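The pair is quoted verbatim underneath.

:::
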Amino acid sequence: MYRHRRKQHDAGSRIPGNEGCETGQAGGRDQGDPGTIERAKHRPSVLLGVVIIALTVSCVDAGAGAGETSTSTTVIVVTSTVANPVTTSSIAETTTTTTTTRSAFEELAAGALITPTGVVVAILDRGATGFVVTTPCGNTATIGNGEPVGGVAVVLDPGHGGPIDSGAVGANGVREADVNLTVALATERLLVERGISVILTRTADYAVRIGVRSQLADDLGTEIMVSIHHNAPTPGPSTVPGTEIFIQSDSERSRRLGGLIWEQVVNGLSGMNGVEWSGADDSGVLRVLNTKGEDAYGMVRLPETVSVLAELAYISSPSEAEMMATAEYVETAADALANAIQTYLEANDLGAGYVDEPRVFNPLPGISADVCEDPALG
């Protein structure tokens, strides 16, 4: 197992401000404690189905030894040839080679496992009876088989989820947890079509603790993580979308990623007709700090991976909530996110929407771990 760390030259001075997590206030809804999950506001009404992550992976029996394959349909076994020293004589010259094999688990340097039920979990170790993993609620479990995942470029984090954490709910009954996941799935599809590897921190309607989400990205060694959210409560009216992108205060890469996402999302949503927009006076790409001077949101403070938290629009605004219930919105938001991510990975554009002055905010404590319920892992 390895952990991806921000590059040395990516770190900068941290600016004093405030600490926190995800709450019901605008710019303050992400849990700051690694042992918390995102705060619930309403009980859920929809259970989303399990999806299959579109990655090039192999199903492996964790009990198989090096060079042995499981009974699964696809197993990667790599054969390498290593030359021994050459022996030379006056009669002939011979070269002796030795062939070794590695299991798919070892070859992939897997940091995560897709369980038989489609849940993504971080791998801690490989035991005698299966993969030892961290569950979405932060518990330890052993899974007999699944699909190891490694070498992923992008982690998409659909905020909220589960029976106790729907996130904000629009006047039309649209749940933030559902919109977050729908947009994440659509973005995943677009990225895969463009040849960019991606995985989600949750694949259906279940809770995942903040520390587990951030650790997954670090363990996979991903380039970036984007946490997808929809904002509340509603601030004043605005002539443009009130998109807010919260960035890591010590990362120039996070700042650049945030600017690209803000620019693409605002440009994309501005093309939608008949929407009454809401927005804060300081909306844009900004740092949110607690009174300890730390990044307030756990999803940007905890990961060592370059990360941003994107509040795409206001689900608490009746007009914007109606927009979010349409296929046009999902396609527009997903296309904007995919464009920004691809640009970040393949070009040097800087984006726009940067706000110099940090916002100061202390989020409410998160939900305790004892109320988190793990989904079936298989």
Q: What stands out?
A: DSSP finds seven helices and 20 strands in the chain. Residues 327-346 form the longest helix (20 residues). Residues 1-32, 38-102 have pLDDT under 50 and may be disordered. The first strand starts at residue 22 and ends at 25.
